[in-house]
From TrEMBL:
This is DUF4219 domain-containing protein. Residues 101-112 have a biased composition (Basic and acidic residues). It comes from Dendrothele bispora (strain CBS 962.96). Residues 101-143 are annotated as: Disordered.
Length: 143
């Protein structure tokens, strides 16, 4: 993995496309793309089970992967998604790629609490979900 100082960091609209591609490739390489896409869902086995603890570690690693690749000024847009990397990546795409949909996402976020927000609940737009729609997630590799 690249050193933190060598990573391309999300600065805003001007570098979202390149940043998203690099972050997506890094997530896939780290085995975290399905977590970021919301495919790797929270198990119902309870917080003390090995399955749940492994999922929680993946969730935290996925969040860290994204946060480390963001400038401080862009972090303010995603505060509150620390335990929801799928919602986190979707919201980042809305803010920096799909301009004008921030209010829609905020309403969904307020009604969700700790429930995962689909990386693309509406119509398949957004780079992260386009990547998945192309059949390139870790789940597809296991089939």
């Amino acid at each position: 993995m690249a050193k933190d100082s060598e990573m391309t960091k999300l600065q805003g609209d001007n570098n979202y496309g390149a940043w998203e591609l690099r972050a997506r490739v890094a997530a896939r390489s780290a085995g975290l793309l399905d977590t970021i896409l919301g495919i790797d869902e929270q198990p119902t086995t309870g917080p003390n089970s090995k399955l749940y603890k492994a999922w929680k570690n993946r969730r935290d690693a996925a969040t860290e992967l994204i946060v480390k690749r963001m400038e401080d000024t862009t972090l303010t847009h995603v505060r509150g998604y620390e335990e929801n990397p799928a919602g986190f990546s979707y919201y980042v795409s809305v803010v920096f790629e799909d301009k004008g949909r921030e209010d829609e996402v905020e309403k969904k976020r307020e009604g969700q609490k700790s429930v995962l927000v689909s990386p693309n609940p509406d119509n398949g737009e957004g780079s992260w979900s386009k990547f998945h729609a192309g059949g390139d997630s870790e789940t597809d590799d296991k089939k």
